[in-house]
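can u do me a favor
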């Protein structure tokens, strides 16, 4: 893809071929930023239920849930998509943390029948986005697949390979295809031959920011409480106990959901995209910082995500970024 075709986060102003494909047709990309851990053993779901914020025990078969793993103080160790195949559970986690997370999880196993392994080098994931996403994904396999609802999952046996397809629950409609690393290049080639457009990382980042989806290690850190990142959908309020639950319940019930800071959207005036980490000011006082920023082709203006103090989170609040006025806005942007 040429520089003229690619929408970047540093100043591109047009709608690229890949951007249009992701919104209007179908586009795909390898998710190099995510790794996969494998949890095996008959006690794995019971064990994960006591660690993760969402309900992973009541799948009753294949299923998946987005969750967080917290410290006892309620701060995030990581975000995770827990994918149950029926025989094992895959944990989709940030790739830079995968090995350390596997080691940390292994230390959490005591008498349970649970085995944890980092399989990131053996399992690849491919994102497929766009209104024609299901047509593209289902066309990869000789067997007929029933369409997936939001949050659905399909297990596919194709020759000697086992593949997993999930449909996203939030943000732009899309799918994630998990396969062996050796099979992934062939799947990408088949997607391209079927008319899907390769999606570059910069355009994928622009789409993520427009959708207001926070990314761990970027918008969220090990100092983040999930409610500060608007991750209510990653928390079950009906399951049993999990690590960090006391803090979440205290915020929910005693503080009525009020947190010290929160991720919000910003609409800066002008055409300059603020650098990540730029201070956000209110009445000349620093109240937060930008975490992600891009030029939005959809809105034809710069947009940013920022972590700001709770007194500056209301929609319409006027703040300053780089001496330019910015307006706090609800997420998503688009």
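np, heres the sequence
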């Amino acid at each position: 893809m040429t520089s003229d075709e690619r929408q970047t986060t540093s100043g591109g102003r047009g709608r690229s071929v890949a951007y249009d494909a992701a919104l209007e047709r179908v586009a795909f990309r390898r998710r190099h930023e995510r790794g996969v851990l494998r949890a095996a053993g008959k006690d794995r779901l019971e064990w994960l239920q006591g660690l993760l914020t969402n309900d992973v025990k009541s799948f009753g078969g294949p299923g998946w849930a987005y969750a967080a793993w917290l410290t006892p103080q309620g701060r995030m160790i990581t975000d995770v998509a827990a994918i149950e195949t029926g025989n094992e559970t895959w944990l989709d986690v940030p790739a830079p943390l995968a090995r350390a997370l596997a080691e940390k999880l292994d230390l959490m196993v005591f008498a349970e029948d649970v085995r944890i392994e980092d399989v990131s080098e053996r399992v690849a994931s491919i994102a497929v986005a766009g209104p024609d996403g299901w047509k593209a994904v289902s066309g990869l396999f000789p067997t007929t697949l029933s369409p997936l609802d939001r949050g659905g999952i399909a297990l596919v046996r194709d020759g000697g390979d086992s593949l997993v397809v999930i449909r996203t629950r939030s943000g732009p409609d899309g799918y994630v295809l998990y396969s062996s690393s050796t099979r992934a290049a062939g799947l990408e080639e088949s997607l391209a031959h079927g008319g899907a457009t390769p999606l570059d990382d910069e355009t994928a980042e622009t789409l993520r920011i427009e959708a207001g989806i926070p990314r761990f290690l970027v918008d969220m850190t090990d100092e983040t409480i999930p409610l500060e990142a608007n991750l209510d959908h990653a928390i079950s309020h009906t399951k049993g106990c999990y690590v960090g639950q006391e803090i979440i319940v205290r915020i929910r019930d005693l503080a009525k959901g009020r947190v010290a800071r929160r991720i919000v959207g910003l609409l800066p005036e002008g055409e300059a995209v603020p650098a990540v980490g730029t201070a956000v000011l209110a009445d000349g006082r620093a109240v937060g910082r930008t975490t992600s920023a891009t030029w939005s082709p959809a809105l034809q203006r710069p947009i940013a995500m920022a972590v700001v103090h709770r007194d500056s989170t209301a929609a319409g609040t006027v703040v300053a970024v780089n001496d330019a006025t910015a307006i706090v806005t609800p997420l998503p942007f688009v």
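Residues 181-193 form the longest helix (13 residues). hope that helps!!
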